Amino acid sequence: MTDLTHSSHWGVFRARWDDGDLQVRPHPGDPDPSPVLGNIPAALTHPARVAAPSVRRGWWEDGPGPDDRRGHDDYLEVGWDELLDRLAAELTRVRETHGDAAVYGGSYGWASAGRFHHAQGQLHRFLAVTGGYTRSVNTYSGGAAEVLIPHVLGGFDAVTRYAVSWDSVAAHTDTVLAFGGMALKNSTVAAGGVSRHVERGAMGAAKARGARFVLVSPLRPDLPDEVDAQWLPIEPGTDTALMLALMHTVVAAGGHDREFLRTHCVGWPELERYLFAGPVKDADWAAGITGIDAATIRELAGRIGTGRTLVTVAQSLQRSEHGEQPVWAGAALAAVLGQVGLPGGGFCYGLGSLGHYGRVRNAVPVPTMTRTPNPVGEFIPVARVADMLLHPGEAYEYNGEHRVYPHVRLAYWLGGNPFHHHQDLNRLRRAVARLDTFVVHDPVWTATARHADVVLPSTTTLEREDIGASGSDPLLVAMKPLSPPRGQARDDYEILSALAGRLGHGDAFTHGRTTREWLEHLYLRTQKALADRGHPAPDFDEFWEAGELELPSGPDDGGVLAKFRADPVGHPLATPSGKVEVGSSTIAGFGYDDCPGHPAWLEPIERPDARHPLWMVANQPATRLHSQLDFGAHSAGAKGAGGQEIVRVHPVDAAARGIADGDVVRLHNDRGAALAQARVTDEVRAGVVQLPTGAWWDPEPDGTCRHGNPNVLTRDAGTSRLSQGCSGQLSAVELERCPHTAPTVRAHEPPPLSPV
Ligand code: PGD
Fold it and tell me: Which ranges carry the Molybdopterin oxidoreductase N-terminal domain (predicted)?
């Protein structure tokens, strides 16, 4: 029995077969491995695996076209060749009849670790070489911040991922003011893989040195117990008001860094005027909005003005209506304190939200595929996909542009699960019904696969060879197959190669390379960079044999923000002014009332009312990555006795509704309903319920989710006209004990299948 090293987005691991069971153990170098590794063994054998190429009966028998039966139909298992022939013909029909932009390859999703078999990347290359496609821009994770930050702070990765390191927090920070917290369940995950989870250790070291942590969140577990944080259980969605009041209080006491604001920032006069104009944004004003009392706000303002203060803003805060504002206000608060660019101080968006933030870059590039140019220029902001399908030809605003939605007829999706990740899933179902053809490759029968016309079974990483790597993780992993492909599953690369061949673009897609030849080709770049810098540079066979390779790290020097602080003229930020834009004339010029020219408190449209008096926080799950391996042992084991997802409810709200711990409850609003099992706990603020994302949508005929997917309840609207990001984090709901016997959860069963 040999241990093989493998990688996942939630950790590098060692695996071996033991009497027919796949044993998965964390990599020995990982100081704080993720329990989510426990989901992995089920990936190979679970009945949710797609066993054979499958096609929706309605599409196969009646041909392509808009169809309300998507999501209700049964499937036929078809031979690979027959189905690929039909799919190639359909791609050709759509392109010839409606143009290349009628093919949507947004195909958003996390897919799996492994640089070569990255599902979206393979699809985008395939669609690019076969004519082009409408793409998507930005992510569901950070859509609002990704558009805002280049306007106000500069290059996104440089000022977020690589500016404030965990080591600098451990060594220098006196006060960590964490808006939305830094929950370890989030930083356990890093796109591309992570070999060492350092966050708990770094926060613990800071605490042991005497640092104080302040958690601003409606959920207490958003910082680990070890840091013994002061918990400010804020009303959801109101962090911007608290940040403005902190700025106001600091400035009113004369504690702001006037010199830094003058030499390193633009827009301060406008922002200062706003803080002091009626209604004055003082602590009393913010207390009425945030539910944090004014004395606490004033005390906090005094504390952050002394010593080294780090303001962090979690990704989740910007995943809601006006999500740009807490990011911008957090940066402005750090600028008012004059701390931007100091070691362990200033502002960091996303620190603790993902495992690849707060690390230093590797000193050498990792093996990656290069992008193939897309001949079609058309795009949409990623979270506007249902709007695009429902409203082709309609105008919308995005980042200062007046744009029009294209008319997409065929959507092709790999490595993502929009019927998990999108908002208002019943609306998404109506949108997907408009397509002529919906193609999905996935290893498993997700809700998305169950709405597709063509479902092609792809392998998981466990069944193929690849290289695991991330630009800020020092371990390069030779991911060796742990099993032959399940059923008729094939690698996405193999499927797309076969399709490209049918479309006459086989060589352009494959370059004549097998998978192994691609891996050897991709590895060369890293090997050469190692040799050029005088590091040991094993050849591919040596690397493959060894199973892993430690890469050198770059310097931990505070990156662009430290350089900018030291010399704002010589090292300007990549913003229009070269400075921190606490006010932006560019954004002001767009004229958006939902994103004005400086950070501002804007009342949300979605908020609790008499009919839906509770805030539902739909955040990232602790037991899986998004919806991946939801059927795995760790995820399934944490659900309720009936298999429903757990919803956390405050004792006061539970008592008011006669709900006891363990009851199955029904969450509902005008968009839909979901069943979940109640956990009554004071870890959530009163008036707030927390239902994580990722339980596969399991709809009753009326769309009610039997399983507890919160996205049946969330609002499908952009964060603002600036960035049009996903705003699924917060929704107003009501809660009741389930009025009937809870139906059996069937989310992980395949749909009705028959041979053709
Ligand atoms: P995953 O569950 O990771 O979710 O949404 P995303 O779509 O990324 O989906 C990945 C899919 O890829 C799975 O179905 C998996 O089986 C499949 N897959 C894995 N490997 C392969 C492969 O090699 N080939 C193929 N073909 N398929 C593969 C995540 C998205 O959800 C994100 S990033 C965020 S941050 C959002 N968060 C929220 C939120 O906070 N609140 C709400 N309400 N909604 C959200 N949605 C977003």
Answer: 6-43
Q: Which atom of ligand 1 is nearest to the CA of 441?
A: 26
Fold entry, domain 614-737: Barwin-like endoglucanases (2.40.40)
Task: Give me the residue spans of the domains in the chain.
Answer: 4-43, 163-359, 614-737
- Residue 641's CB is within 10 A of a number of other CB atoms, namely 9
Tell me how far apart the alpha carbons of residues 323 and 148 are, in angstroms, rounded to a whole number: 10
Ligand 1 atom nearest the C-alpha of 112 is 20
Task: State the residue for tokens 């993502």.
Answer: 416
**Does residue 1 carry a pLDDT above 70?**
no
Query: Contact, 7 vs 111, CB < 8 A?
Result: no
Say whether pLDDT at 79 is over 90.
yes
Does 353 contact ligand 1 (Cβ within 6 A)? no
Q: Report the pLDDT averaged over residues 353-381.
A: 96
Q: Hey, is 427 helix, strand or coil?
A: helix
User: What's the pLDDT score for residue 739?
Assistant: 86
Ligand 1 centre distance from Cα of residue 526 (Å): 29
Centroid of ligand 1 to alpha carbon of 628 (angstroms): 7
- pLDDT, tens only, 222-238: 999 999 999 999 999 99
User: Does ligand 1 have an atom closer than 6 angstroms to the CB of 693?
Assistant: yes
Structurally, what CATH architecture does the domain formed by 163-359 represent? 3-Layer(aba) Sandwich (3.40)
Ligand 1 and 421: CB distance under 6 A: yes
List, in order, residues 6 or more apart from 595 with CB less than 8 Å away: 322, 324, 325, 587, 720, 721, 722, 723
Say if ligand 1 is within 6 A of residue 450 CB.
no
Task: Take atom 35 of ligand 1 and give the residue whose Cα is closest.
Answer: 141
Same fold yes or no, 163-359 and 614-737: no
